[in-house]
Structure formats: structure tokens, C-alpha cells
Amino acid sequence: RDLLGTNRIVTGAMLLYAVAVLVVGLAPSVGFTLVALVIAGLTWIAVQSTLGASAQVLLPAWTRARALAYYQLVFMGGQALGAIVWGLVADSFGLGVAFVVPAAGMLLSTAIGARMLSLPEVQLDITTTRMWEEPRSLVSPDSDAGPVLVTIEWTVDPENTDAFIDTMQQVGRSRKRTGARMWGLFEDTQEPAVFVETFTVATWHEHLRQHLERGTVMDVELEAAARRFLADGTEPVVRHLVWAEAVRHSHSQR
User: Are 246 and 146 in contact (CB under 8 A)?
Assistant: First the structure.
């Protein structure tokens, strides 16, 4: 793994597994089948251990259990559904077809995945940390009040606008990882150096968790990278807005 990297191991193992499945479906003798099954077992372990370890490393603590549950659900559910589907295919078209078709599908999906998807080769610091201080507010919304609209005004050095926009795409993914929805970055047409970042969060409580619980060291570093492009003497201007009807309702309840 140190020599090849995670992406090459996963890609190579998937290709070998597809070949092994093809051999099992077309093998003329038991000997070929046994060799193919050993290769299939080795590649199965290689892929599962690599993906499982990557999930543990990439998932922040606050969402790790939930995400791994989804991962296991999809994996085990796929096995259960696959057993039914390929059993029906074997019953209708023969055992050979039930091996050849999925092997071909795996070869195709491996080729597509190798071009479009990749696992990070570097170690990411997903240690949980406080991303922002608790927002100051003269209004005290209920915890379930929402949605919440957050706007952040950035004044950027004109020479760094392209680099800033590229960096903010990563910041946007960071916001979404911690609970944001409908993230966007907008440029002021009258003051091109001014950019407004916006995103929504479902409730006030969810946004407080975004401030205090869900950030990681990696998220903080991404925002720090964006701050390097600010114009001298400026800081981001942050506003927290809660849906007015929700605030009025919380006041009437009191």
C-alpha cells in the first residue's frame, strides 16, 4: 500500500476481481476455478479493508457512526439484492451469463471510477475543533427556529480573485460537510473585489452545532487559506439571519 497507494490498490483489486469472476463463469476445470476464487478472496479483502480504513480516516467524529451505518446498509443491501437478481439471471439464462455480465459491469465501472473518483492519498486532519465562536445575537431564537441564512462578505485583493474563487469551492464543500445547504458565492457587480458567500442551515440549533461541534482542523485550515486572499485591513463580515416567521412565532410562544 505504501508503494502503490490506495487508489491503485482499489483499482487493481477490482480489475482482478472482475477477471476472477469471469474465470469462474467460464473455467473449463475445477483447478482454474479454485485459483480464481483465491484471487477473488484476496482482492475482496484488499478493497474492503482499504475502503473501510479510508472511511474511518475521512469521516469526522460527529458523523462517523451515521455514515458508516449508511455504508454498511448499502454494502449488505447490495449483497442481498444481488443474490436475488443474479439468481434470477442464472435461472433464466444460465450460470455462465450470471458471472460474465457482472464481470463486464465491474470492468466498466472500474474504468469509469478510475477517471472520475479517487481516494485522498494524503492524511487529512479531521480532529474535531471549534470552528467559530458562538454567534452574538440580540434575538434569542428557539433551537428549532429556521431556516437560518448565513452571509459572509469577503473583500478580496483584486489580484487574487481567481485563486480566491478556486479556494472557496473547497470551503463550500466544507460548509456542506458540517450541515450547510444551498451554498453559493456571489460577486458584487459594482464592487468586483467584494464577494458574498451564502448558505442556509435547517435550524438555529443545527447552526450552533456547526459553530461549536462539527468543525475539524481541516475545515479551519481551508477557511484560513481563503482569508489569505483578503484585502489588507479587512475581515469577513458575517450575518446570521433567521426566517422572520420563525422568530415571531418563538416570541409569541414566550
Answer: yes
**What span, in angstroms and rounded, lies between the C-alpha atoms of 215 and 213?**
6
Residue owning grid cell 439464462: 93
Q: Are 149 and 200 in contact, with CB atoms under 8 Å apart?
A: yes
DSSP per residue, 218-251: HHHHHHHHHHTTBPTT---EEEEEE-HHHHHHHH
Q: What does pTM read for this prediction? A: 0.66
Span 106-134, pLDDT tens digits: 999 888 887 777 776 666 677 778 888 88
**Rounded Cα distance, 223 and 220, in Å:** 5
Spatial contact of 217 and 125, defined as CB atoms under 8 Å apart? yes
pLDDT tens profile 32-78: 899 999 999 999 999 998 888 888 878 887 888 888 999 999 999 99
Q: What does the DSSP assignment read for 132-178? A: SPPPP-SS---TT---EEEEEEEEB-GGGHHHHHHHHHHHHHHHHHT
